Amino acid sequence: MSSASDISILIQLIQLAQKKGAYSLEESYLAFSVISKYVKDEKYTQIINLVKTLEDKVNILDKQIIETNTLENSNKLLINND
């Protein structure tokens, strides 16, 4: 077998295991990340873009939560000092 066919077989086995729920979410994403480097498919590109968008939105929400908590804590300090 050639190395290309070996990689293809490994990818197929990983995909089959994913479909059977053999991996946690984090493990599935790790496998997906590696597979997407070798399999050129538009659906992989779309998923990568969706995950990046989701990560960006989570980061924005995290910043907003931190700012809100900081503001609430500042207001509590002002009220307690009065």
Short description, anyone?
The chain is elongated. It contains three helices and no strands.
- Percent range for helical residues? over 70%
Count the DSSP helices: 3
Mean pLDDT across every amino acid position: 84
Gyration radius, in Å? 22 Å
Low-confidence stretches: none
Task: Report the order of strands and helices.
Answer: HHH
Instruction: Tell me the number of structural domains.
Output: 2
Spatial gap, N to C terminus: 79 Å
Principal-axis shape: elongated
The total count of strands amounts to 0
Sheet of most strands: none
Q: How big a fraction of the residues is strand?
A: under 5%
Structural class: mainly alpha
List keywords for this structure.
3 helices, mainly alpha, 0% strand, 87% helix, 2 domains, single chain, 82 residues
How would you describe what is shown here?
- This protein has two domains: about 1-40, no CATH class; about 40-80.
- It starts with a helix and ends with a helix.
- The radius of gyration is 22 Å and the shape is elongated.
- It is an all-alpha fold.
- The model has no long low-confidence stretch (mean pLDDT about 85).
- It has helices at about 5-20, 25-40, 40-80.
- Helix 1 (about 5-20) packs antiparallel against helix 2.
What is the topological layout?
Layout: H1 3-19, H2 25-38, H3 42-81
